[in-house]
Amino acid sequence: MKTVFPLSIAAAMALALTPAAAQKTASQGIDEYRAMLADGNPAELFEAKGEDLWKKARGPKNASLEKCDLGKGPGVVKGAFVELPRFFADTQRVQDLESRLVSCMETLQGFNSAEISKTPFGRGEMANVTAMATWISAESKGLKFNLSQTHTQEKTFYEVGKRLFFQRGGSHDFSCASCHGEEGKRIRLQDLPVLTKNPGDGLGFAAWPAYRVSNGQMWSMQLRLNDCYRQQRFPYPGFGSDATIALSTYLGVNAKGAASIAPAIKR
Amino acid sequence: MADPMRIRAQAAGGKATVRVLMSHEMESGQRKDAAGKTVPAWFIQEVTANLNGKQVLAAEWGPAVSKNPFMQFTIKGAKAGDKVAVTWKDNKGDTRTDEATVS
Hints:
The structure holds two protein chains of two kinds. By secondary structure, chain A is mainly alpha-helical. Chain A has one domain: Cytochrome Bc1 Complex, Chain D, domain 2. Chain A has helices spanning 4-22, 26-38, 43-55, 97-109, 113-118, 124-138, 152-166, 176-180, 221-231, 242-254, and strands at residues 86-88, 93-95, 186-187, 190-191, 210-212, 217-219, 264-266. The longest helix of chain A has 19 residues, at 4-22. Chain B has one domain (6-101): Immunoglobulins (Immunoglobulin-like), CATH 2.60.40. In chain B, the strands form two sheets. Chain B has a four-stranded antiparallel sheet, with no helix packed on it. Chain B has a three-stranded antiparallel sheet with strand order 1-2-5, with no helix packed on it. The relative contact order of chain B is 0.32.
């Protein structure tokens, strides 16, 4: 018996050690899954749709958006995404990509911007705004975020965004910072980026718009923020509201130097 | 009219890898809408692929395939310049064909 004992212990130890050594952490597993999906990211379908919509003459004025100024001059798309939100002189306010698209749709094509802003995500013209935002973000893929902070309004929006980020409220007494304020936080198996600083290339602000595999939807930054507030049990922020743009400005300025991978793919 | 597919085909080592992204709802028929009524099934049933007009793949799909499906396959003997056409047909009879050139 004495000779058998150490042997069985060794065998048991070998059994216990081998799977442990080969086992991946949950987040490594998810990364692998994402890498597999990234090859056929359905966001490409939305990109194609968005490009068509941008170039097509539509709306009551039957015009295309090719004269829309996204901040780098009329019609310039490449590189515009990584410099938004920014101050626009014609509208006299700081705008993010989606709110800018909606004001272009009003001034150039004659759409009613208030009506579009009220449309739920994924429906009607709102779905078109998301598709165009997807294409425009794709045109800046790999470029580094570099938001302007020269105009007073841009500085104000950054400061307001910072306060909103740390503002606790709702039935759970949550703030954005509750989940995105320190390292090592996650929701279920999703690692959460720290958004008070540059979280790195393709993380946080640099990863949206993104295609969500679990519900087959294309999510823009506005919808991402809207859903963050839903998870915090806050009231929904209005589409293109100053609050969402201030938060975007805060996240975008913090992400300075991070390369954009948008449109990304999410679980 | 259904949205276009994205087809990429790349030749390497005597065969071509074809990647196809289709735009389709792929409704399983198992879901209910907000009013509690069943959302009718609507999915791709037949997929075929042709190389220069000759069929190289035929597949029967069902409601278990995901929304906006992605399909990848290899064609032996395909070389740069060849034309790959992919066709799908759904259970409502709607169909779409797109073509790409092997690069």
